[in-house]
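Here we describe the complex-level prediction in full. Unlike the single-chain runs in Section 2.1, the two entities below were treated as one system.
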Amino acid sequence: MASTIIPTIKFLSQPTSLAWVEQAIAHLDTILLDHSHCERKAAGAALNLMFRYPSSSHLVRQLTKIAQEELEHFEQVNQWLERREIPLAPLNAPPYGAKLKAQIRHNEPQRLLDSLLVCALIEARSHERLGLLAQYCPEPELGAFYRGLMASEARHYGIYWVLASRYCDRQEVEQRLEELANLESEILVTLHPEPRIHS
Amino acid sequence: MASTIIPTIKFLSQPTSLAWVEQAIAHLDTILLDHSHCERKAAGAALNLMFRYPSSSHLVRQLTKIAQEELEHFEQVNQWLERREIPLAPLNAPPYGAKLKAQIRHNEPQRLLDSLLVCALIEARSHERLGLLAQYCPEPELGAFYRGLMASEARHYGIYWVLASRYCDRQEVEQRLEELANLESEILVTLHPEPRIHS
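The structure predicted for the assembly as a whole is:
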């Protein structure tokens, strides 16, 4: 295998390294547990935005759909955990999420723009990495499960991006996305020692 | 009509007063908007508990279902708002929720017990009041909608109560429920001047 994986998801500045794939494949159970946490957090992120912008009907409608889908995936991942007898347990979060969230500016409308783009990037990276798990997972049934989730993750990052473009100036969206995408890839250049979806 | 409405939901210490029914029927649009906020908050409450107790598989499974149903109801209420051309807008919350949450003790396992019982009581009161709206609403189609939601609310307060009984000492559950139910009814004795589901 090459040291990076192509093709790059258009949204992301840099593709995931082979080192992450090797780490993930060697720790499938931990990755599955972390994935459960990620789905719950993704539902929480959508709901938080619904609480912060309760009057934006279109935004609220789209976020409701995302939250519902994330909860469905959360359930599905938990069924996999149960089947493998992996107890639900807390896991230290990798620095990825906190570092990205630290980039969200505090004043509106920048806060909305940054929040939507951070969500978009996390979804885009999840989409890419679930795709890698689908491709390289040595267990065909689990691989098929990951493949099945990929389409939703792709739809989600698309929705977040479209929302950003709807509520914010298009040129500013492009420019900020580039900045945040570069940072997102930079965070992942150093593989976090604990295996995670976003290590 | 009598000044109180019978029968009392078993869970609740006192039934809702006629004054609330009159206030609600006179402000159906505001009640519908507040109901939308209530459904979103109910989903948020379930999700918050999932974040606080991520390792309790059974609890997490039950709360996931509740959060999913609340989001479905949230969507349905929002469709009603759209149909009536009521824009999604923030509304001052009545003191009800904050006063109940102030009763949640800070140390475990009391915190879990109180959180579950507060959720149970809010769902029980919602169930009772949606039933009253179903009964007294002058618009048959809207009344039928409220009737349709009642069963879920009843199931939800049952689930929260069963969870409390599963994770906490049964006798303590009974005693604390009585205390909190008395307080819950007391909060509602004085009708809040702004029409709300929990005014």
